Amino acid sequence: MKKLNRAALLASLLFCCLFAHGSETNYQTEIIVEGLDNPWSLAFVSDREWLVAERSGSLRFITDGVLNPDPVDGVPEVLFAGQGGLAEVLLHPKFSENKLIYLSFAGADGEQKKLNRLVVVRGQLEGNSLVSVETIFGSEPLRKTAAHYGARIRFMEDGTLLITSGDGFNYREKAQTLDNHFGKIIRINDDGSIPKDNPFLDTPGALPEIWSFGHRNPQGLVVASNGTVFENEHGPMGGDELNIIEPGKNYGWPAITYGVDYSGAIISPFTEQPGMEQPIKYWVPSIAPSSMLLYRGNMFPQWQGDLFISALVPGDVRRLEMDGQTVKSEDILWAEFGRIRHIGEALDGSLILVTDGSEGKLVRVTAIE
Amino acid sequence: MFRTSAVFLISVLIAMSCVALQTSVSNLLWLDSINMPVTLSVIISMLMSDLVGMSAAGAYPIIVVVFAGLLIAFIVAYFLSKWMNTGRRVLYALAGGTALFAIVVLMPLAFYNLDLIAGARTLWGKLCLILGGAIAGYYFGAHLSGGHDNEEA
Fold this sequence. Notes:
The complex is a heterodimer.
Chain A: H1 2-23, E1 27-36, E2 39-44, E3 49-54, E4 59-63, E5 66-67, E6 86-91, H2 95-98, E7 100-108, E8 116-126, E9 129-138, E10 150-155, E11 161-165, E12 184-188, E13 210-213, E14 217-223, E15 229-234, E16 240-245, E17 281-283, E18 289-294, E19 307-311, E20 316-323, E21 326-333, E22 340-345, E23 351-355, E24 360-367
Antiparallel strand pairs in A: 1-24, 2-3, 3-4, 4-5, 6-7, 7-8, 8-9, 10-11, 11-12, 12-13, 14-15, 15-16, 16-17, 18-19, 19-20, 20-21, 22-23, 23-24
Chain B: H1 2-33, H2 40-56, H3 62-83, H4 88-106, H5 123-143
Helix pairs in contact in B: 1-2, 1-3, 1-5, 3-4, 4-5
């Protein structure tokens, strides 16, 4: 009987080893750029040319892996304070034709300098300059805090633009009302006009650009090719969420939450409520999810369709294997680089990690042949 | 010295209780205003959780901030009492109120205007918390041994 048990144990171990080997992905990581000042996002203009947005206010080209010391001219002045500054850089879907890029940032108000807002502009890239810059969105009302901007922007398949707008930290209750931009996902056309099919167009008192509400600080946004919108947002102490966003829906913050306040106080004792959406996954304790990617490349075919979430705490990347709209499993990757601010997919399918802070780096993840 | 320390710790607990109570009440009032099912058991459980949570479970220890704030304010009040003719209870009440004023009004200025105590985000909330500090200071002044209270003289 003992021999039989031992044989069964050995067989199980062998099976586990084989399975682990089969599911393993061979990759290598390489630091390719250093010396970035609080990098926040990355856009791939071509195989050779990338744009990196630094929170301190600079937009800079990286050409063939070399950082251009001269930032792009014409980028508007940003409020670099707290969590504020230059955030997203995004190419228009028809960038090759129109050279339009979109930037999100915290901007001080022109008249009341102590107040600020989330701003989205677009402009045309001409060489190392941004020209014809126009503001297409400014959050209302103004805020006095320099935190929780959201600031992630993504194009939908229909050419409209989604903008995540955070709750401003001090204004969390406003995420539940529709007369302001705190804690909302905004949907506008690429020129800033309002799409005719937004969900609150006919709701009295509601701002027509609101697409969903009840968010805290959403910094990850992905639009799948089938139209599914995945969003991740920072919770308070615990309660980071991965949501599937649908127009007009209420995602609950701060009426329902799986987290508590940083002070240790209960924000809400409720985690569910009719009429409020549940996350498809949440994290307690927090991982501080900073950006999200849906992998579509060919370099890692086994990862196609997986979500990658960069995390600031403790600093790693979460690979979520998806089964449609359900998370099947979670892997923790690349925990050796510290806080990861952004994850992007280069045009060749390699993954680019952007580390956080005043000595930011780009780390390239490539497959080993 | 032992009595003074005990009275000081009780005054810290009074101030913390006010902070926790004000935070719970402001959250509960808002939840009730949007028709969340706020029942008596929810109220009791939240009051207790906040008292414990804000004292021991936060990412930053509010109780340490309150402790330090009151300690500095009471030491200053002690020296002021040497040459001021103001009653001890009033003096320490003012000191306690000033400590909480510093915590809920001045401290956020160092954190990009973030109100780290959620209950302090409104003017009403700030006033309540400053009053809580004053009550703690009044208790400290009333129970302090040695010297004399001009109000009682």
